[in-house]
């Protein structure tokens, strides 16, 4: 290599170095001159997507250990700020909830105008979003409405137990049966119909039709099914036939007053079974896995249940109010394995947001890593251990509404999951019933230490290896 060639290379290297340095410095400041959160250097086009292969929330948690609890990532072309600690999340929610309460809308969800009618995607400032959330609170998930549907929940649980009974003694994957039962519980509560069949693949099909690979064609298919259901119900009502007293009846009453259009009813039904069925089912599977991995916890939960339910044939929903230990087990499982570990991405709709001293400019996606927040050592002692007692020992009781921000499996603030009142009834009922009706054993030769608790996260955080167990009829 000649001397001039060496100089040329050095010059190129120096030039490239200074451009990168300049870009890095520029990247650290917002247009208002405020410091932006630090983060790994993005590549052209893909940004930091190459940093996130594998279980995304684990990868993001690892990066936050290097860059801090308020971190910048570029996801493709989207500037994103990730919040990973209890204190940073508290600051974001207490100071800026309203400014961060919009959503980033992926193109697929614009299909059929879904995003414009959806409680998930409309910005919180939009009057339609306010109306939808209002209707959910005052017409759907009301104490009276939920109480009226209690027989449905109890029936769906009985059907699940009836599915397991003839299979007692067999090694089973329980995921499919639980998923079917939970989808039916949600669909029957909403429109008095089972959408899944035990032993068939309908539930899986529907899940696939769901959020994962949604295209305009699939949207149209789901929407035309839902439209038919509404048409049939309207005809039923016009014929003055007996009411169903499900959520659809309540929604059609609102529609009759002109406060809600048919397309919004469809969007709400769609969201309910997509958002509800999966996350409830996977939560049940996680709790069962933790109970089997921790036999002393299972024994304690069983003893509590025996005290409350005794030799009654079945658990009644009101019994679950007297099962504080089981409630703590459910919370502890959701703390360690939230079905939505990154919640749903929020979006900054105004400038002026500052978290941890860093600027979060308007248009930035804000991701809360609930997985990290709920294992933050500043908020939780021995955060990776499964210890339900911690929820019983807290000075102020913790519910699912995320007030304290350190426990937020359903989010918190304006965007809190509206399904909480339904879930807090369903989860304890299903789990208490499963434990009451059966002893659960691991397959022959397997010990709790052998269980693989690895996570897999596509749209919901699940056990990577589905739980296999043996139900034994309890005396
Ligand atoms: C165990 C079950 C469930 C879990 C873990 C769960 C979790 C969540 C989470 C983490 C969010 C996002 C919160 C945020 O962005 O800050 C959310 C939003 C939402 N969930 Fe749930 N959810 C569950 C069940 C349900 C059910 C049963 C329904 C309806 C029947 C439902 C409907 C919704 C809707 C409509 C939103 C969007 C709310 C908004 O953006 O304003 N979810 N849920």
TrEMBL record:
Q: Which organism is it from?
A: Zizania palustris (Northern wild rice)
Instruction: Give the record's family classification.
Output: Belongs to the cytochrome P450 family.
This one is known as: Cytochrome P450
Q: Where are the transmembrane segments?
A: 6-26
Keywords, in A-Z order: Heme, Iron, Membrane, Metal-binding, Monooxygenase, Oxidoreductase, Transmembrane, Transmembrane helix
Would you say which domain of life the source belongs to?
A: Eukaryota
- Per its Swiss-Prot or TrEMBL entry, what cofactor is needed? heme
One family name in Pfam for this protein: p450
Example GO molecular function? iron ion binding
